[in-house]
């Protein structure tokens, strides 16, 4: 039985978040037997678990607080310095878990769909916060297949001023990793799995199928 694992060594710039809970939930997510409601819940739960790793180096600011015992200078995250960008539609499936972690983060959306023949991304929406240059930007999309959607989204974000960017997905294909790393070598990739390959329709194998359709029950 194939495991679906592609390369045995992790490419530079890629972090595979391989916590047992992430792998377990990803197994359920991949399964054809998992219905829409469970798929949506699992995607959100995995993104929350991944967020813990992705946000590990989040800067902390000192804050004066009073405990029941005495005053102290503690440290807290300044959420408004963080911006999550969801690549619509499927990005919204892993946005919720991230927002649960940092509710005060700013949020932007980039609408992209893959042309069914050329597989090239077509943009239909773009709305991000102002002052992107001042924010750590986390771009989320469950699938990194050819890598063209992620690369186009990040090019667009850089044009809007974003400088410190990370990309988070659930499943990446080696082809997508190579394209994104070549286009944007400064952008680290976080994924729950690096799968074997793309098929002739540019779908990830073994993958999980069409993430958007499974999240929203559109097929
Ligand atoms: O790496 P790529 O080859 O560009 O493919 C990945 C893209 O494909 C999917 O979106 P899709 O085009 O299906 O749009 P949807 O989210 O609206 O379903 C996925 O969510 C990515 O955005
Ligand atoms: O396998 C794939 C590839 C692109 N988009 C998806 O939703 N799934
Ligand atoms: Mg889709």
UniProtKB/TrEMBL annotation:
Annotated Phosphoribosyltransferase domain residues: 17-218
Keyword annotations from UniProtKB, A to Z: Allosteric enzyme, Glycosyltransferase, GTP-binding, Magnesium, Nucleotide-binding, Transferase
Documented activity regulation: Allosterically activated by GTP.
A single GO BP: UMP salvage
Required cofactor(s): Mg(2+)
Functional pathway: Pyrimidine metabolism; UMP biosynthesis via salvage pathway; UMP from uracil: step 1/1
Pfam families in the record: UPRTase
UniProt superkingdom: Bacteria
Catalysis: reaction(s): UMP + diphosphate = 5-phospho-alpha-D-ribose 1-diphosphate + uracil
EC number in record: 2.4.2.9
Residues reported in the UniProt entry to bind 5-phospho-alpha-D-ribose 1-diphosphate: 89, 114, 141-149, 210
GO cellular component, one term: cytoplasm
Sample GO molecular function, one term: magnesium ion binding
Binding positions (uracil): 204, 209-211
Cofactor binding notes: Binds 1 Mg(2+) ion per subunit. The magnesium is bound as Mg-PRPP.
Listed PANTHER family: ADENINE PHOSPHORIBOSYLTRANSFERASE, URACIL PHOSPHORIBOSYLTRANSFERASE, CHLOROPLASTIC
Function per UniProt: Catalyzes the conversion of uracil and 5-phospho-alpha-D-ribose 1-diphosphate (PRPP) to UMP and diphosphate.
Family statement: Belongs to the UPRTase family.
Protein name: Uracil phosphoribosyltransferase
Species in which this protein is naturally found: Acidiphilium rubrum
């Amino acid at each position: 039985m194939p495991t679906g694992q592609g390369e045995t060594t992790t490419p530079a710039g890629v972090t595979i978040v391989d916590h047992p809970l992430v792998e377990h939930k990803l197994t359920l997510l991949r399964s054809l037997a998992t219905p829409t409601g469970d798929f949506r819940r699992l995607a959100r739960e995995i993104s929350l678990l991944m967020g813990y790793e992705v946000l590990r180096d989040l800067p902390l600011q000192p804050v004066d607080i009073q405990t029941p015992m005495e005053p102290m200078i503690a440290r807290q995250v300044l959420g408004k310095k963080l911006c999550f960008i969801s690549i619509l539609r499927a990005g919204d499936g892993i946005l919720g878990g991230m927002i649960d972690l940092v509710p005060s983060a700013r949020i932007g959306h980039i609408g992209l769909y893959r042309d069914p023949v050329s597989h090239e991304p077509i943009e239909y929406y773009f709305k991000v916060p102002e002052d992107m240059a001042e924010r750590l930007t986390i771009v989320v999309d469950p699938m990194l297949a050819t890598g063209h959607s992620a690369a186009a989204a990040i090019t667009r974000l850089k044009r809007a001023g974003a400088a410190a960017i990370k990309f988070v997905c659930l499943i990446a294909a080696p082809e997508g990793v190579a394209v994104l790393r070549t286009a944007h070598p400064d952008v680290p990739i976080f994924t729950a799995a690096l799968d074997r390959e793309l098929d002739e329709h540019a779908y990830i194998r073994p993958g999980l199928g069409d993430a958007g359709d499974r999240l929203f029950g559109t097929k």
